[in-house]
Design brief:
The protein has 144 residues and is an alpha+beta fold. The protein is built from 4 helices and 6 strands. The protein has a single domain, classed as GTP Cyclohydrolase I, domain 2 (2-Layer Sandwich), CATH 3.30.1130.10.
Length: 144
């Protein structure tokens, strides 16, 4: 294995450890209404190095087997500031990946909004399970 491969595998192991550390805060529970499509909205704020003010983070999801309590989302957000020097794109992708991994929702979206150097930036990212679609539920999304 050459130096670049060793460096790449060490970085991969570091990313895995960081993901495990973040995701351990996403403690889920059984969905009491698994057969019902409904929308869950969780909002929080966190401070990141690259932004002048706290960044707002909005998670929207339609649960499948698992749900996430607000207190668990708050604990997860408190673990995120360890992501030093990340932009909103990376933050939103990280949160969506973690939520998809731990909750496996039918549909999920993350909205991250922050300001740096007087410019407001907003990133919206979403994902859904194959063949899931419920436009009536998604039409009820709060505008943010």
């Amino acid at each position: 294995m050459n130096t670049a491969e060793k460096s790449g595998s060490a970085a991969g192991a570091g990313r895995f450890h960081a993901a495990h550390e973040r995701r351990r805060h996403l403690i889920t529970a059984n969905n009491p209404r698994r057969g019902l499509d409904y929308l869950v909205c969780l909002d929080g704020r966190l401070s990141l190095d690259l932004f002048d003010r706290p960044v707002s983070l909005h998670l929207r999801f339609v649960p499948d087997d698992r749900i996430l309590a607000p207190a668990e989302f708050a604990a997860y957000i408190n673990a995120l500031p360890r992501l030093a020097n990340v932009g909103l794109e990376d933050l939103a992708q990280t949160v969506l990946g973690d939520v998809n991994s731990e909750l496996v929702p039918r549909w999920a979206a993350v909205v991250a909004r922050g300001a740096a150097a007087g410019i407001v930036q907003c990133v919206v990212i979403e994902d859904r399970q194959p063949r899931w679609d419920n436009p009536t539920v998604l039409a009820r999304l709060p505008l943010r």
